[in-house]
Amino acid sequence: MTAHWDGRIEALAERLRSRGYRLTPQRLAVVEALLADGSHPSAADVSAKVRERHPMVSLATVYQTLDVLKELGEVLELDFGEGFSRYDARHPYPHPHAICARCGAVHDVHDASPIDIAAWASRATGFAIHGYRLDFYGLCPCCRGSDTSSAPEGS
Amino acid sequence: MTAHWDGRIEALAERLRSRGYRLTPQRLAVVEALLADGSHPSAADVSAKVRERHPMVSLATVYQTLDVLKELGEVLELDFGEGFSRYDARHPYPHPHAICARCGAVHDVHDASPIDIAAWASRATGFAIHGYRLDFYGLCPCCRGSDTSSAPEGS
DNA sequence: TTCCGTGCAAAGAGTTTGCATCTGT
DNA sequence: ACAGATGCAAACTCTTTGCACGGAA
């Protein structure tokens, strides 16, 4: 299967080198782990994925590589108030997310907004808007049907 | 001066008592600190403010009180990815914020959105949307004019 | 008197950093 | 060969928790 992030590994490798960063096996492994699926992995998720095939890559290296990728604008750090960060290397630009309160899944929302919310906010606030974040909380289509209660855990 | 949160201290006191919570001097001090100004204070900010007049109130008590207030729905916990949470007791319901990248100020956006973004997101994602957060990043009107560079710190 | 709340200090989670060793270019 | 990257462990920040004391109902 092909998708728009095909070739992103090669592009990233080139980008790293041209900016004076070395392309180490560890960095390659982190990039591969980030792009492996459409999820929004935490640093621990990335580390676990990397260790499946490169058991000696340390968590510190994962964090350091994520920092480099953030600096290059090739990964987006997402904080949903869970106590840790998630990362998105497939779509490293601001876009809305929908978070399921029951199963915890994070979905990307790629539909174009019917309005230019940044322009609206600029008008409403007087700010020069550089970016935004828009997160929706609710039940994903899957969890909507499978349970009448919306709480992740019974209190 | 009067504002819509006048009487909120009294209302909160009543709410606490009716729910079986005690109204202690510490809790009153935390509530006062939260409502003192329109900023979006962190727990440390609240603690500092409380200690101006009640030096023996511990940080743990501040956190515990914030938990109670969150449970009552009287304070909103906000996480802007700064590594700590901020709290809003004046407007404890979801509303957009605008964060200045230069001075760090957090402004409330009270203008009504021109569209029902929750309805849009529901249509776009199939989620049952329960809530959302919308944060804008940029330069506040004050910082816009005072400096041509947008970085909080020179790198 | 009976709990609930407090203060202290220690524990906890996630992230960052110092330093000696190793490696891509 | 040399600058930069790695791995380990310790440090750091914010937040939560255990426990004995203290005060309100």
Features:
DNA-binding, 39% helix, Dna Ligase, domain 1, homodimer, two-stranded antiparallel sheet, alpha+beta, Arc Repressor Mutant, subunit A, 155 residues
Detailed description of the structure:
The structure is a homodimer of 155-residue chains. Chain A has 155 residues and is an alpha+beta fold. Chain A folds into 2 domains: 1-89, Arc Repressor Mutant, subunit A (Orthogonal Bundle), CATH 1.10.10.10; 93-155, Ferric-uptake regulator, C-terminal dimerisarion domain (Dna Ligase, domain 1, 2-Layer Sandwich). Helix content of chain A is 39%, strand content 17%. The first copy, chain A, is built from 6 helices and 5 strands. In chain A, the strands form 2 sheets. In chain A, strands 4-3-5 form a 3-stranded mixed β-sheet. A two-stranded antiparallel ribbon of chain A has the order 1-2. In chain A, α1 packs antiparallel against α2 and α2 crosses α3 (43-53). Chain A is globular, with a radius of gyration of 18 Å. Residues 149-155 of chain A have low confidence and may be disordered. The A-B interface holds A 77, 79, 81, 85, 96, 98, 100-101, 107, 109, 111, 113-115, 117-118, 120-122, 124-141, 144, 150 and B 77, 79, 81, 85, 96, 98, 100-101, 107, 109, 111, 113-115, 117-118, 120-122, 124-141, 144, 150. Chain A binds a DNA duplex (25 and 25 nucleotides) through α4.
Structure, briefly:
2 copies of one chain form a homodimer. By secondary structure, the first copy, chain A, is of the alpha+beta class.
